[in-house]
Amino acid sequence: MIKITHSQSGQKLSELTPVLKKQLAKRIQGVLTSQITKWRQIVITSTWFSPVPSPTSLIIATWRKTPEGFEFTYGWINYKGDQSRAEWRKSLRNWTFEPQFFDRLDRIMNETLNKQGSGGE
């Protein structure tokens, strides 16, 4: 599981207007949903993952809203049984997946904070 902690000097996310909070939550949900598809594509198209897994039975990619925020879980079932190889493959996939994922979240957070700072809704 990835837990994201966002810190911002100055204005806090909790101080966003209700309209901007709702917009931010909706945009985060959109990013999480699109990243599920991206994660599945990365796993399926991995040349080192053979045979190609079924997206619904072996690939894990889910998100849910929690009282603290959002929880995004991703991975796959290691059906080959070799844990060290599975960890190595996961590190390679993370190298591809995580930078883009965190960049998208960072962009939408900054855009929302900038709207709040400029007084726009």
Write structural notes for this entry.
The chain is α+β, with helices and mostly antiparallel strands. The chain has one domain. It is built from 2 helices and 2 strands. Helix 1 runs antiparallel to helix 2. The chain is elongated and about 50 Å long.
Runs in which pLDDT lies below 50 for 5 or more consecutive residues are none
Along the chain, the helix and strand elements come as: HEEH
Separation of termini? 33 Å
Helix content: 40-55%
What is the count of β-strands?
A: 2
Question: Tell me, what's the shape?
Answer: elongated
- Count of discrete domains: 1
Q: How would you state the average pLDDT, rounded?
A: 76
Number of helices: 2
Strand order of the largest sheet: 1-2
Estimated radius of gyration: 17 Å
| Oligomeric description of these chains | single chain
Q: What is the makeup of the main sheet?
A: 2 strands, antiparallel
Give the amount of beta strand, in percent. 5-15%
- Class from helix and strand fractions: alpha+beta
List descriptors:
2 strands, 13% strand, 121 residues
Short précis:
This protein has 121 residues and is α+β, with helices and mostly antiparallel strands. The chain has two helices and two strands, in the order αββα.
Topology:
Blueprint: H1 18-45, E1 59-66, E2 69-76, H2 83-118
Antiparallel strand pairs: 1-2
